[in-house]
Design a protein that fits this description.
Shape: globular
Radius of gyration: 24 Å
Helix content: 25-40%
Largest sheet: 7 strands, mixed
Strand content: 15-25%
Structural class: alpha+beta
Distance between the termini: 21 Å
Number of helices: 16
Number of strands: 21
């Protein structure tokens, strides 16, 4: 969930003065306390051990004692908003979402359609780049050049997703020149709405108050209701507790910690709306060049910057190159000398991608090969995802919930405009595909999901009868709107004994990684895009300290050291969310 201040920088513990707490909410600073560093090290070691050893052990050690699973489940686990949560939500300073009136629903949906149309039409993108500043290198002498207001730092960004757009906006706000190179042939919006949690909103607010205000105006507040974990079907025993299908295991509000830390509340905004707001207000028009995948780069050395080569042979020159080009990053491949196939385009992402089902089937097997070259970890889960145009039956009380089960779980969140974004994660080997539609089964994805989360007598393949909420959303979705992807993540550090890599985990010379290129993670905490936003903020902060290009490598190294510990912890717990909670 949101985490507010306590989970996002320590701001929610109530201790210390306000200035100190506000300084800490965007990202965790490296600690100089030896005991604290040992504790963090032990935590990361535990995460690794739990992920590799404890989770499989727990899955195999389930014990059944006859009679213990009989009886009535407690009534209090069926209440959506208990008294202590209602008290927080009823506070006078707790924000409320705009009611989902017919006007509001139409407004949210139409805004998303307009943004999608603007993106497809290329509004705000580069057309005709012969005179673009990055076409011609500056005449930089050996040893580098001064960075001045007249000749500011020049930043090339590979990738026009959230990480790349935020990074470019943050750098532009600090007076740098920016250019974004997006590989998509059309800047088509894809994926569902994005939860922008409190930590990411604070970073955006510091980058650009205008972007922050536009996003808040466009977004739907989700922090005004309860979030949490539910059991998918009847489970438990008289010793540990009995639960009926749909009973709460954990409930929490996300607004309390945010208010305590002085942070804005979590909102959800459609992805194309976010893209268009940042493109409009984040940097000059024409800064984004589509059909422009960075295929390789050369560090020119001695403070003279970097030369990036696009797939079409075009060369781009800058002082800095930021690899925000996703989990299968070509920049990362070049930086770390990975296998030849490590940077290939592959199907991934919890919210689908800009490819159709036919392409997804073709790429499913290829992705397995690419992941082995890229040293990415298959999570063990394939993910079905969609945005359902449906008013959920619990919309007034619940904004985010996970239904847990054996070898699978079902995630849903309010997407605004009487829509629900849902994810069905199922444990299975990588590379699987659904049958193609046929006369006998024209809807193969829906057919599978209706079996996996069946609430009818007999239940799923394990005999478990699921809470009907999962199929309430699945049945409100068309086959064509459901995307399937295998989910991959990976450690922020490669397995290496190279000391320089540990001193500068995501950077080498004038080149750095951010977002999924640096730390792909499971969607369980909703922090993938939020951590990418923090990356962009911190990266620009470090680059803004550069007065001479010979300082670039040190600034990027400091950025990566600052960020790697925090993202490693978030990433580890996101992995544990799948590996320990399921089953």
């Amino acid at each position: 969930g949101d985490g507010g201040g306590g989970g996002d920088g320590g701001g929610g513990d109530g201790g210390g003065d306000r200035a100190t707490r506000e300084q800490s909410v965007v990202e965790m600073k490296p600690s100089t306390n030896t005991s604290h560093r040992r504790n963090i090290g032990a935590l990361i070691l535990f995460i690794g051990c739990a992920d590799g050893f404890l989770a499989p052990l727990l899955r195999k050690s389930q014990i059944h004692i006859p009679g213990l699973d009989e009886g009535e489940a407690p009534a209090h686990n069926k209440i959506n908003i208990p008294t202590h949560v209602q008290e927080v939500l009823s506070r006078a300073d707790a924000p409320k979402r705009v009611p989902e009136s017919p006007h509001r629903v139409a407004e949210v949906r139409e805004r998303a359609l307009r943004a999608a149309a603007d993106a497809a039409a290329g509004r705000g993108f580069l057309s005709g780049d012969e005179a673009a500043w990055w076409r011609t290198p500056l005449d930089v002498p050996p040893g580098g050049r001064q960075v001045t207001e007249a000749e500011p730092l020049r930043v090339l960004v590979a990738g026009g997703g959230l990480a790349g757009l935020v990074t470019a906006a943050a750098c532009h706000a600090k007076g740098m020149k920016v250019a974004i190179f997006e590989q998509a042939s059309s800047y088509a919006p894809y994926g569902g709405p994005i939860q922008i949690q409190s930590n990411a909103l604070r970073a955006i607010q510091r980058i650009s108050p205008e972007i922050f205000n536009e996003l808040c105006a466009a977004g739907t507040v989700t922090a005004d209701r309860v979030s949490g974990l539910k059991i998918g079907y009847r489970k438990g025993n008289k010793l540990a507790g009995l639960y009926d299908a749909g009973d709460w295991l954990v409930r929490f509000d996300t607004i309390g910690p945010a208010l305590e830390a002085g942070l804005p509340p979590t909102i959800v905004v459609d992805r194309p709306v976010i893209q268009q707001i940042i493109i409009k207000h984040g940097f000059p028009e024409g800064s984004v060049r589509i059909k422009s995948r960075v295929s390789s780069y050369e560090d020119l050395g001695d403070g003279r910057g970097v030369r990036a080569v696009l797939e079409d042979g075009t060369e781009a020159f800058g002082d800095v190159l930021v690899g925000a080009d996703g989990v299968w990053s070509q920049v990362r491949k070049t930086m770390h000398g990975l296998g030849e196939g490590a940077g290939g385009f592959a199907a991934s992402g919890a919210a689908g991608g800009a490819i159709d089902d036919a392409e997804a089937r073709k790429l499913a097997k290829d992705t397995v090969k690419i992941a082995s070259q890229a040293l990415r970890r298959y999570s063990g889960f394939t993910c079905y995802a969609a945005l359902a145009p449906h008013r959920a039956s619990n919309i007034e009380d619940v904004s985010y919930q996970i239904l847990l089960g054996s070898d699978k779980y079902f995630v849903s969140t309010d997407a605004g405009g009487e829509r629900q974004q849902w994810f069905a994660l199922i444990r299975e080997d990588a590379g699987g595909v659904d049958p193609e539609p046929s006369d006998d089964d024209p809807h193969p994805k829906l057919t599978r999901l209706r079996k996996e989360f069946s609430h009818l007598a007999g239940g799923d393949q394990n005999g478990n009868v699921w809470d009907p909420f999962a199929l309430e959303l699945v049945n409100a979705t068309s086959e064509e709107d459901i995307k399937r992807r295998d989910l991959y993540d990976g450690a922020p550090l490669l397995n290496t004994l190279d000391a320089s890599r540990w001193l500068s985990p995501w950077a080498r010379g004038p080149v750095a990684l951010c977002g999924d290129a640096a730390h792909p993670m499971m969607p369980n905490l909703g922090q993938g895009g939020c951590q990418s936003t923090e990356d962009g903020y911190r990266l620009a902060e470090e680059l803004s300290t550069i007065s001479h290009t010979r300082m670039t490598a040190a600034a990027l190294g400091k950025y990566s050291r600052t960020r790697v510990l925090r993202t490693a912890i978030v990433q580890g717990f996101a992995q544990l969310g799948s590996d320990l909670l399921v089953d």
